[in-house]
Amino acid sequence: MSDDLAKRAEDDAKLAEEWARNIAWDADVRFVVPGIKAFVGVTRTLVEYHFERVAEFAAAKVTMHLINMGHKVELDVHADSWIRIALSVENHILGLPSPGGTAADE
User: Fold this and answer.
1) What are 82's strand-pairing partners?
2) How far does the chain reach from its first CA to its final CA, in angstroms?
3) 10-residue block means of pLDDT along the chain (106 residues)?
């Protein structure tokens, strides 16, 4: 049973990361280096983009695209070398199932 839960959590995180990558693509940012992290919760997911400092224009494009979509974002410089964009997204927006149901149930 715990293997099933671990697999589902991994699959949900991959789905959230794919959503975030698609958002970056829509903002005309083809590469996010080193990457995107997703922390899936019960009803919301924390999505983080991490850009190298030299990619500040790409980070700005993704940030503005997310704001134009109506998302509230947190933007900060981490350790003087990384730009971090963070946002909390409702799971149903990512296509993730709600507690006690499936995404198709919504």
Assistant:
1) 52, 78
2) 25
3) 78 91 92 81 92 91 96 89 93 78 44
pTM (2 d.p.): 0.82
Find the length of the chain. 106
96 contacts: CB under 8 Å, gap ≥ 6: 12, 15, 16, 40, 45, 103
The contacts of residue 71 (CB under 8 Å, 6+ apart) are 87, 89
d(CA 104, CA 106): 5
CB 62 within 8 A of CB 68: no
User: Quick one: pLDDT at residue 30?
Assistant: 84
- Show the tokens assigned to 27: 């903002």
Look at residues 100, 104, 97, 94 and name the one whose alpha carbon lies nearest to residue 8: 97
